[in-house]
Amino acid sequence: MLQRYIRSDQDQLEEFMKTMYVSRGYVFDPEGSHSDIRSIELLYFETGGGFWLLKEEQSVIGTIGLKGIDSENRIGEIKRFFVLPEHQDKGYGKSMMSQIIEVARQAGLIKLRLDTEKQSNKAMSVFRSFGFYEIPKYNDNDIAEIFMELSIVS
């Protein structure tokens, strides 16, 4: 079940991120390139977005964040979209994305953007299934290789 992040989830979230990044061949760096995980209220909630955890029983098996990046043009950004490898191909990613797109619409956003890596084949499949299309680089993420956008005007 997708649940809105609350501060008491922090330890579970960091343990999930550590597991997720190791599965992708990276080291989780909450003091550096992944420091947003320790500033969720500021970077997600205060920009008009949010952060959600997908839980099975009491374990975090997925995450998705939404943050506002351009209030004038009503653009939001999907961040930290992950499902643990052993829980992929069960529809969780599509369910989370569908819910976040609806949250973004209700928040008055008209476009969503995201960045990802070429190795993220399953995530790319989810993005394309919702109509995300590639755009030029829009941020300073040096690791990202693919930049995408979706118009969500009803």
UniProtKB/TrEMBL annotation:
Q: In Gene Ontology terms, what is one molecular function of this protein? A: acyltransferase activity, transferring groups other than amino-acyl groups
Record-annotated N-acetyltransferase domain positions? 1-153
Q: Which UniProt keywords apply?
A: Transferase
Q: Which SUPFAM superfamilies match?
A: Acyl-CoA N-acyltransferases (Nat) (SSF55729)
Record carries keyword Transport = no
Q: Which InterPro entries match?
A: Acetyltransferase_Enz (IPR052777), Acyl_CoA_acyltransferase (IPR016181), GNAT_dom (IPR000182)
- Its name, as the record gives it, is Acetyltransferase (GNAT) family protein
From which source organism is this entry? Paenibacillus prosopidis
Q: Name one Pfam family in it.
A: Acetyltransf_1
Q: Which domain of life is it from?
A: Bacteria
